[in-house]
Amino acid sequence: MFQARPTLHLAWPKKLEMAALSPISKRHAFGRRRSSSKPKSYDPKLEHVSSLQRSFSILKSVEELKEHRWSLFDLQYVVLAGLCLFSLWIIEAHAPVIKTAAALGYLLLLLMPATRQFFLPSWPIWTYLLYFFSSRFIPTEVRPHIWVKVLPALENILYGANLSNILSAHTHPILDVFAWIPYGIGHFGLPAICSGFIFLFAAPKTLPVFAKSFGWLSIIGVTMALVFPCTPPWYENLYGLAPAHNGMPGSPAGLARIDALFGVDMYTTSFSTAPVPFGAFPSLHAGDATLHALFMTYCFPRFRPFFIFYVGWLWWATMYLSHHYAVDLVGGSLIASVIFFIARTRYLPHQQPDKTNRWQYDFVEIGEMKRTADEELGYGLGLLERRDTGDSDEWSVGSSTLYSPTTPSGSASPLSDDGRRSGDSESAGMSSRSRFW
Fold this sequence. Notes:
Number of helices: 19
């Protein structure tokens, strides 16, 4: 009859477990950071997150294709296959056997797991190279009009002057070499250098995203140059605003001084016979440099000033050598920024500051966490989060899909106490890995 009044025991924990306060099932956690966690391989059947495929079995790839969950993201491969077939079809040389052998050879590289891990992410890059060099065979009668006055007019409207003509008005051999380093060397060698650093020192799965982003940026740039051809500054210097026509040779512009300085023919012939001589907008030199800087800053943020300096250096070089207007540089950098934003929010793995190379990663988290509506208004449970002033961000781990609803304590750790992977982490890793097939 006489019950004691219930007491409420309040104790502020040292560390709030956000996963226990707000458990979210996997079917409702679409906006959270997607994870691909793997342990330090106690079970030989489990592959480490940084391990590479060594199998050449085509049957294994066929089985993975059967289990793959197809999505709209996979339409990119249909587009790449269409561009490859189109490029092979328009090539002037009538060699059906060679073209068929080339297509089957690349298909074989995509079906073997050991080679697929390199040639599938880099497929957009190879497609871009084939697409670019075969575009010279597009018939003249189907090519669009070449715009001569659009870019100079935009240059004067936006900046009040032709910045390229101003920067190239005074030349010097020292300035020529200083401009040649990023434009003539860095543009061609930097993708391989960045890929090496990202593969060795960034989080696993970062390099495939970088390769796809770089390839699609190049494909978009070539497509825009073919659909909307515009003359660069060197054309205005040579012909003024006279109408241009297809079949006119390109020009090395300021790079001709480099050939004369070193007594070699590195650029004169190649630029004079370029497949796309009137591809001024957008500037792939600026777009590639911006994309490299964004990815490298994301992976190695302490070197951000150097990456920013390189982009500015290349911007100056392109205008000094009379290859691009300033509006071309802005267009290329904007496209690169949009591609990087999509890659960072959806596909890039989260970098862990305490890791120095790819082999130190036990798990990776894919993409960024989306805030709920109440968090956007300032009423979410994120207000109870204990912010740390150090480099380690515990919330970045606890807010991902590494949360296991079957764990009584609501632990957000990707590994259990014995170092093995939990069931939910394993399923999350499998779903994330299928995204990169």
